[in-house]
Input
Amino acid sequence: MKIIKNLLFTVFCAVICFACKSNNENETLSSLKGTQWKRQMKKTFLLMMLFVFALTKPVNAQNVKIGITATPLGENDILMKNLMGGPSYSGAGFYTFGISSQIPISSLLDIETGIDYSRHTIKISSSDLYPNTTIQSYKSNVKLASIPVTLKLNFLKYFFVNGGFLLDIDASNSSLIDKQTGIGALAGIGIKYDFNFGGTLFINPEFKYHSLLPFSSSQNRQRLIETGIRIGIMFNLSGKTK
Output
């Protein structure tokens, strides 16, 4: 079992390193040919799928938990290079809700996936570079459908840490923000309580970084980030606690 755990973490860390390396080379991506870019994205997505399959193969369906989640509280922002004379971008709030499933790997490790919908509001303000001009501001919305794939490490009975990747699909119409479709990352820490009837209530503050590996290139990429408090309730399909 220790060998399997070490192997899984090795694969997980390898994908993270690959993502970080690609992010550092962001400025060179615009010069890549379309076929090279698509090939790189396919490799990254294939690694993610292999990681999921490796974790979910030895699953007993009776131990799987499903439930609903929501993030009603949090802050968001846009990361980008500031351009002289250009507008400024700032977060104006968001919310997220979704359906989640949790698959135990061992007494300490779970893999969690599902589908989330989030709506982000971004405030865009005109430049204040020139004197005697009125600063105008307006808002733009970003709508995301996300598939998270995360590992959750449980400890001290009531606590856990989680981290992994997001496959984001930007469903926005005529948004003034760059498309966030791509692969992102998330990390968090939480507290949970398991009930005797098989339910689990949890609170999970987490950080999300969208478009870490975007599926489209841009010279001055805008990346959406968020920090929020995720809450949810899960139910064990067997009706018993793990």
Remarks:
- The chain has one domain: 2-236.
- The beta strands are 65-79, 88-104, 109-125, 137-155, 159-170, 182-194, 199-214, 223-236.
- The chain has a mean pLDDT of 79.
